[in-house]
Amino acid sequence: MYLKQRIKQHIRDNRWQYLLILLIFLSGIVVGSYKVSSLDGGVRSHLLQMIDKYLKGGMEGNLDGASIFCSAFLHQSKTILVIWFLGLTVIGFPLILAVIFLRGISLGFTLSFLFQEKAGAGIILSFIAVLPQNIVYIPFLLIWAVVAVNASLYILKGRNNSYLPLGTALIAYSILMLLFILVFLLGAFIEAYLSPWLLQLLV
């Protein structure tokens, strides 16, 4: 019950940060979806070959789960680390928004490409191979972005305006980073093992 109250209080205290970051992310999705139409034939063909190869491997059970897990976890961890670092700088606020915007572009592009090129199969593929891990990635990424923005604003405004000493704040901020990285382990596991398993069910 106490944790639930703390979460609600956190959201209330940071509602404008969440609103801004959510709008930036959604704007990225819109931009990413429009970029699909500007692809030239060669790039489009290459992406389709990659998707077909992934589909074939998933349906035949030939995907290397350990390799996908490591790659996905490293990629997501890098994003967390970049945002963590930006939160330690006075110019981190706009750059964190840029990272979130780019992440939105990536997701919007992926979903739009699947919808346009694979039609009904693309919708199914999105639900079983893209959305499951992003149910973990996206909410926690947005939460982490809010935490990092607050850290950047804390440094920008001056720590003298806060009751929390700088050293304590940095330690708490870094511990949170490690916790978020651990959460992203779950997303990487879903991407590496659950999504390919769901693909096999289509056979």
From TrEMBL:
Organism domain of life: Bacteria
Pfam families cross-referenced by the UniProt entry: SpoIIM (PF01944)
Keywords annotated in UniProt: Membrane, Transmembrane, Transmembrane helix
Sequence intervals crossing the membrane: 16-34, 81-102, 109-130, 136-156, 163-190
The protein, known as: Stage II sporulation protein M
Species this protein is from: Syntrophomonas wolfei
